[in-house]
């Protein structure tokens, strides 16, 4: 039985933390957000996630659950009230898990490399595989949505949350590099999906403001570049 003892360890700018917030919001679950300092990690985080020592961590009745996609599945299985996050059909559920894993394991590393690329040639080289990945996700959207607004159909679901949590950062990186990632001509399905996702009331309450993320990027991206060059 789910209770109201829910805490989320995270950072407001993390898309992976934002994923969990989206699921909690969609499910109307009350929670306490505990901001983490990822340079000087606190005792609660280290105790709750001793293996990876990273965010997000959901603490439910004093029991920690780690890794954002695992947390999404946990939320859906514990709080069984509508709307569901994962599809009820077992095949559709497997496909949703496949594309969420693709986003994290394949597409996001490409996007991250593009985000921190320096110089016109490096940016151009890093951009191409990001576009290729979005074309794949365009096809996935057509198949998963079955003609409806979201990957999950009429309502936001697992893959919507898995990809949608990056939209704020995508907009920031677009502005910084003067590019368009979700092109209405090349990926019309994803373009319209992003508009519908961002306009959803649950999303608007949770997604960080683009200008605020842009300010965070000024400090974060140089640090990522410095670490990558070591």
From TrEMBL:
GST C-terminal domain ranges (all copies): 89-220
Q: Which InterPro entries match?
A: Glutathione-S-Trfase_C-like, Glutathione-S-Trfase_C_sf, Glutathione_S-Trfase, Glutathione_S-Trfase_N, GST_C, GST_C_Tau, Omega/Tau-like, Thioredoxin-like_sf
Instruction: State the UniProt keywords alphabetically.
Output: Transferase
EC numbers: 2.5.1.18
Per its UniProt record, what PROSITE patterns does this chain match?
GST_CTER, GST_NTER
Q: Which residue ranges does the record assign to the GST N-terminal domain? A: 4-83
A Pfam family that the UniProt record links to this protein: GST_C
- Record field: catalytic activity: RX + glutathione = an S-substituted glutathione + a halide anion + H(+)
Q: Which SUPFAM superfamilies match?
A: GST C-terminal domain-like, Thioredoxin-like
Top EC class of this enzyme: transferase
Q: What family name appears in the similarity comment?
A: Belongs to the GST superfamily.
The protein, known as:
glutathione transferase
Organism from which the protein derives: Solanum pennellii (Tomato)
């Amino acid at each position: 039985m789910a209770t109201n003892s829910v805490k989320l360890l995270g950072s407001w700018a993390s898309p992976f933390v934002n994923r969990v917030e989206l699921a909690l919001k969609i499910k109307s679950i009350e929670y306490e957000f505990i901001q983490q300092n990822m340079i000087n990690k606190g005792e609660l985080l280290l105790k709750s996630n001793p293996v990876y020592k990273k965010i997000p961590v959901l603490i439910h009745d004093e029991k920690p659950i780690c890794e954002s996609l695992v947390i999404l599945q946990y939320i859906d299985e514990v709080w069984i009230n509508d709307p569901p996050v994962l599809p009820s059909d077992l095949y559709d559920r497997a496909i949703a898990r496949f594309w969420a894993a693709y986003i994290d394991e394949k597409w996001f590393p490409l996007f991250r490399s593009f985000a921190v690329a320096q110089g016109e040639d490096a940016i151009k080289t890093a951009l191409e595989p990001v576009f290729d990945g979005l074309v794949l996700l365009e096809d996935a959207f057509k198949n998963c949505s079955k003609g409806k607004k979201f990957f999950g159909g009429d309502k936001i679901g697992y893959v919507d949350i898995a990809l949608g949590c990056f939209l704020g950062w995508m907009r920031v990186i677009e502005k910084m590099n003067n590019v368009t990632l979700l092109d209405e001509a090349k990926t019309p399905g994803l373009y319209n999906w992003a508009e519908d996702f961002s306009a959803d009331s649950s999303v608007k309450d949770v997604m960080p403001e683009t200008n605020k993320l842009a300010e965070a990027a000024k400090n974060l991206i140089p640090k990522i570049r410095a670490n990558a060059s070591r």
